[in-house]
Design a protein that fits this description.
about 160 residues, 6 helices, six-stranded mixed beta sheet, about 40% strand
């Protein structure tokens, strides 16, 4: 499968709430690191992330990948992503994000997925209280500081 076809299948699976098709793009031991929900390891957990976690408080997903670049083992793609929130305080607002997907590839499948996302505009769209936004951003900061590659920056 070409990179372009894989990325379209990736986005389509989320938009169609097809966790199994999404998970099949990953290796058996693949890990998806979600900016909100954390890590999901293995195809069953990755499928559940899409079917259960993503759609728990959202609907009408739209996901597009732009300008992919790969060296054969690492794939980067800029993305735009949105959904309609079903959270009561959001009043049906569409939350919109942009980010960069970082994928490790192995044998034509995704072995690892990480993302760097600009989540702040979505929190405003969803009408989150300032305290809730601060809590979420604090959690993201703690996760960043816990990564091995940040050790030198914390010294």
């Amino acid at each position: 499968m070409s990179i372009t076809a894989m990325l379209r299948a990736f986005c389509d699976a989320v938009e169609q709430r097809n966790g199994r098709a999404f998970a099949d793009l990953f290796t058996e031991d693949g890990v998806y690191h979600d900016v909100f929900y954390g890590a999901f390891a293995g195809r069953d957990n990755i499928a559940g992330m899409v079917d259960d976690f993503f759609y728990r408080t959202a609907t009408d997903f739209r996901w597009d990948m732009h300008d992919p670049v790969t060296n054969g083992t690492t794939l980067y793609a800029r993305y735009t992503f949105s959904y309609k929130s079903t959270l009561p305080e959001a009043n049906g607002a569409r939350a919109m994000f942009e980010g960069v997907a970082i994928m490790t590839l192995r044998d034509g499948k995704i072995a690892g997925y990480h993302e760097v996302a600009n989540t702040a505009p979505a929190f405003v769209d969803l009408k989150f209280a300032a305290e809730r936004i601060a809590k979420i951003i604090g959690k993201q900061g703690a996760e960043l500081k816990a990564r091995a590659e940040m050790k030198r920056h914390l010294a």
